[in-house]
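Posting for a labmate who doesn't have an account.
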Amino acid sequence: MNIKETTRKYVMDTYGRFDLVLARGSGCILYDDAGKGYIDFASGIAVNDLGYNNGLINEAIISQAKKLIHVSNYFYTEPQALLAEKLCKSSFADKVFFCNSGAESIEGAIKLARIYSQKISKRGHKIIAMQNSFHGRTFGALSATGQSKYHKGFEPLLDGFAHVKFNDFEAVNEAIEGAEGKDYCAVIVEPVQGEGGVNLADKNYLKRLRELTAKNDVLLIFDEVQAGLGRTGKLFAYMNFDVEPDIMTLAKPLAGGLPMGAVLAKDGVAKAFEPGSHASTFGGGPLVAAAANAFFDEISKEGFLEEVCKTGEYMKSKLDGLKAGFAGLIKDVRSIGLISAIEFYSIKAKDAAVELIGEGFLTTAVQENILRFTPPLIIKKNDIDLFAEAVAKVLAKKEKNEPR
């Protein structure tokens, strides 16, 4: 079989794929169908946080598959109960709803916010979201997303979203305290805008948002689909900012590579849901929950996240070194934990990503001139050294010809 031709013939053309067929993985390395290895600094878009062919996750999946793969959520299962307890006891939340993806977790958060408003706070249905945000591709999540390039061709979007500048407290304050303030039931924000280019929320900004929303009984939703679960060096991203939301969404790495999302909420908010309010056929099924338990247990081990922080600091130092060495090409470097980005003046991120594939490294182009790095949380300093050398090699080729 010619895998590329067969894919192009039968799979809808919704992805700008790299010219690469991946066949297997081990640790932080992926191998193509010819056996060439690539050190992964993308992690399947921040999913494979424990790398590939992880023994603990494999064992959990195999063991559970021999018992029970799926059962309706009309019944109880041990893996789901265990995972729910771990997530709630480790976070601000009291209750969790399980689904299958980040976009689904956003849909759940939107529905929860609206029904909370209808039943409890008696506010309107509108939600304040941020410019340059990304929340997913389903209609509610897409409507919340603050990037027009994702909207094209799908208008009219879902009514009820107002987009304001990220890190601009006054813009949110003006909306909530203004004449139409009662129309708003929630504010949704990413503590770290991953798809937007690794833009970090200002700590004081989030604290002021928390004070404003609490005062007005407006729910504060944190989208941690990409930045949660150890990626920032903390178990959850909000822990870096000393601010607790009312609702938090999780997904990507949660089940170690299997599809899983979650909506976490405080009890007073979660009670707005009742049987029939929301559901997911496959949400929190025993197989994915078993994998998620294995993943969560691993990142919760003593010293694991401390090591992520140290490795992240080392990664940042290497990226800062690249910025200093290629000041005419690199506009900015942004980083927290093990999510980082290089913003170029005029180099196309996709072009740089293709050249890095040639050097044996996988990355993600998230904006026209922004290259993002989300390596597995188990990445080693030696891999980072090799990566920095590869980036320097690619940039050295461009330095003479690249205008600022």
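Reply:
Got it, the structure tokens are right above this. The first helix runs from residue 3 to 10.
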